[in-house]
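Dear colleague,

Thank you for sharing your sequence with our group. We've completed the structure prediction you requested, and as agreed, I am returning the results in plain text so they can be pasted directly into your records. Please verify that the sequence below matches your submission; if there's any discrepancy, let me know and we will rerun it promptly.
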Amino acid sequence: MLAAGEDRRGTPMKTRTCLAVLALAAACAPLPPPRVYMPPAGAVPSGPFGGGQLAPRATAMGGLRLCDGASAANVGPVSWDRMAVAFTPHIQTAAGALLRNPTSGACLSSGFGPRRTASGGGREHLGVDLANAGGGYIRAAGPGRVTAAGWRGTYGLFVEIDHGRGVRTRYGHLNEIDPTLGVGSRVAGGAAIGRMGATGNATGVHLHYEVLIRGRHVDPLSYGS
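Please find the predicted structure tokens below.
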């Protein structure tokens, strides 16, 4: 015989009513919002470049060390611990500040100016060489528009960026260029545009970095300090 207020299974009717209300509320509750991955601050999507990873934007390097075994010719004063004394993080130009070292921690292997040989000959070196045996990202020195991206003779894989107001930067010997970049692409300052390599006329993994002001090559280490 059922007690007052119980169903056939002996469950109090009040308890059943509460359970039914809770079940209905759960069924009608809105679904939790989907989790959205937010990249770390300063990161930029690189698409297939770099295996689909996110390459953090470059931060300005605080100093520049002369590579072990590199000659101090054409690099300006060097401190006792082989740091470039006159180095500053940015080149001041009419187009704004540019990174003086647009790499992920390379050392200075060769400076701007004439390269002499033992026989007295040589040739003009129109940029600086920044070396890192482990490679790493190459960054846009400042915001601008890509005017070249591909193979260019002795430069190997090559990128040129027009920053406006007669200021251009060039990046040579890359191992890889972000395939989403092409002529006309806009890039943000510090964004990864490629990886360091040894393509073209190169004897080791490094970046050949040039800065042009109104068509004239200037020394990336000393110009616009």
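Summary note from our side: The first helix runs from residue 13 to 28.

Kind regards,
the structure core
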